[in-house]
Automatic annotation (TrEMBL):
It is found in: Periplasm. PROSITE patterns: PROKAR_LIPOPROTEIN, TAT. This is Spermidine/putrescine ABC transporter substrate-binding protein. Keywords: Periplasm, Signal, Transport. Residues 1-26 form the signal peptide. The keyword Cell membrane does not apply. It comes from Pseudanabaena mucicola FACHB-723.
Amino acid sequence: MSISRRKFLKQTAYATSAFASAAALASCGIFDNSPQAEGEGGEDVERPVTQDKQTLYIYGWATYIDNQDVIDEFTKETGIKVVGDSYDSNEVMLAKLEASGGRSGYSIIYPSDYMVTQMRDLKLLYPLNKKLLPNLKNIAPQYLNLPHDRGAVFSVPVSLGTTGLAYNVEAIKAIIGEEPTDWNYLWRHKDELRITLVNDPREVMGMALHVLGHSYNTTEPDKIEAAFQKLRELMPAIANFTTDAWRDPLASGDLMMCMVFSGDGISLARQDPNIKYVLPNDGTSIWTDTLAIPRGASNIAGAHAWINYVMRPEVAAKISDANSFGTTNQLAKTMIPDDLKAIEALEPSAAITAKSDRIAKLEPEVLQTYEGFWTRLTTGLG
């Protein structure tokens, strides 16, 4: 899955200004400025508002709608044809649904956790009929009462992701010796490391806030500034800020360690035994992707049938295998492939979860504070 799908951390109020700044600053060479592949999410596709009940239009991250085995089996069982379109950020999805006025033509969407809160507040979601979702019992109880949608009224969390460190084992052992266990490792070895951090202000600033003992969602300007100062100490070790263009350099040893999102880090680790993905034992950010029904959906019955189908353990296991994310489905955990199951960092332990945070919606004025320090950090303005 393209890592650009994690743009969900940039809220709409933030995106209009922060992304404009990032584009202008890309020429400085510290941002990942690779062009988006043709057809990679966000296509302007029109879907019929009035639909027959034998077609289900889905709008989601590419990894969920490209799994043909999962789709074909659903069609075989129900007779409902699935048509999927992809987006590469929650903001693209939100903008399309808002512009449609409830007439987007889609009956299933895959908003990430914080976006559920935003869409609920905008009255863009249809409440779930749990009588049509008997497989909801397969979702581990702790995921059905998360802050973004307590009681799973509008959404069902299906995939679990984290932010951690991917590293080249041989390079780390040869130059430093000890392998990483926590975020402070970056600071302890800043004079020896060559690293990348994700091109994401909430994640990077949040990580520094966390190291300083504060919440990822801190609103106090002095604490945000302290995080900025903490990150400045790392600048000699940082090759660039990128959310995608780190894989080949890490595999070759040109980079030693990269801050990455779990699906990408674990996918590379499954392909290359010299790459490991680790969750810092002092905690990190944890996030979920969910299933929801947008307001104005044409095929409510088909949407519930899809959600119930995806919550089957064997289907959830296939999805976890495809995207290298953890699963919220407690029965699916025993069915995922052995190589994926063997990766300890696939899902955070209870101890790490207790020390971790979920990035939440912040008010625009607070986001502007983050943006200001992020711009200073990434342009070296001090």
